[in-house]
């Protein structure tokens, strides 16, 4: 079959159109986490201003959130706010404390917690729940949990042999989490992209964690005390202290430098051979 000059010309034009369409199809709007954080906050504030909270009945784990119809008190007037900078983006985490909990320990962001929870999006769609107490390591959950659970403590174990776990005077409340501290631009399962989340929580118990097995609980490896365990790296080897078995990089394992003589996980009694104020396990020339 012969192709005329006109036919060749039209085929050429068609090719350009198809390539252009393919390029348009491939064009996506880049994710802007800073703009998304602002949008999330607008949506969260709107939700908090238009909904109210019914505390859990005695013996119940979770309260109820409903739309304001009359003169109910808006959530916005009773929640507290935590300003958080994560990956250089500023976020606002909103939280409601129904009961702090009577135990001694507040969890750090890497500790394990014994919890029940009920998760919703801003459309009040329930995407996940645990109605039996479950142990979870906060460092394996979303960032919003690591920050949010720090405002609660556990309760008193009143479990009976052969019966399900039971606790009294537990920590109870609600976390309102921007998407950047949740599943962000990727979503997860039925959770869509860039979705702020709501979690009703009950905290029964806290277990301190020693991630690197060096005898020091993670909470005491936050040397600068800012709550971010990833920016404490004494030997600057790229491994944060809480995950580094040799914190000062001197070739001697932290656990072998008398970092915790009394074995309670707190290095406040650590050996300081040269008495320079820096314990041996953080002092490379000792």
Automatic annotation (TrEMBL):
Xref: SUPFAM superfamilies: FKBP-like, TSP type-3 repeat
Catalytic activity entry: [protein]-peptidylproline (omega=180) = [protein]-peptidylproline (omega=0)
Cross-referenced Pfam families: FKBP_C
Record-listed E.C. numbers: 5.2.1.8
Positions of the PPIase FKBP-type domain: 110-207
UniProt keyword list: Isomerase, Rotamase
InterPro entries xref list: PPIase_dom_sf, PPIase_FKBP_dom, TSP_type-3_rpt
Chain segments carrying region Disordered: 221-286
The protein's name in its UniProt record: Peptidyl-prolyl cis-trans isomerase
Organism: Aureibaculum marinum
